[in-house]
Please model this.
Amino acid sequence: MGFMQMLEAAWARNDSLVCVGLDPEPQRFPAALRDDPDAVFRFCAAIVDATADLVCAFKPQIAHFAARGAEEALQRLIAHIHAQHPGVPVILDAKRGDIGSTAAYYAEEAFDRYGADAVTLNPYLGRDAVQPFLDRADKGAVLLCRTSNPGARDLQDLVVRDAAGGERRLYQHVAATVAREWNANGNCLLVVGATYPEELADVRRIVGDMPLLVPGVGAQGGDVGAVVRNGRSAAGTGLLISSSRAILYASAGADYAEAARDAALALRDAINRCR
Model:
């Protein structure tokens, strides 16, 4: 199956819109793992195994691995997900975006080296910078649109003029451009932060049923009910609601995997009560 088919199947099979972000921070690991040379893999794999039946996707953040020279652990982790939990898609959170052959190599890195099913992308350089990802019709291209950080307003709310002379916010232009021009293979998603529910509703109106990756619940304080009301598709799905720290570090003790499962289950159930 391609990414979109995997995602739709996971929504249905696990009755879940939860995406667990895998952002390992060794200083927050349980004491028993801190001196383990394979701690990054072991920690993340335990979280995956404890939550795989409760999620629609996993989202490892590449910088959390690469900063510690743990790229090999990331490769093994994605392979572990595919082998032990087939059908749960993996989104590599890398926010790539570059031109020419560099973009092609970034696509090769994400999909062929790491084995990801989708990757997050920065659309700022334009279509040619993401075309190698769009061309991989079986993979997901997850483009930043209205992000969850406080500084998002610095650029994303700027008013721009389109080719017809109409004016709209930059994030609205990104949403419309991706939905109408870049999504020929039906493999695009957009990132819209949970901390901006009105903008989330705005993006949903623009893009129809295109899936939206929504970070910002949990540690960042996004409201689950507002996310579901403003972001769900006509079918009651259409969302990947991402939580990282609130699930990964639900416990600092030896029960960290069980606590992560409890946190993921609580989030799934909270979401499902709203849709």
In short: The chain has one domain: 3-273. The first strand starts at residue 18 and ends at 22.
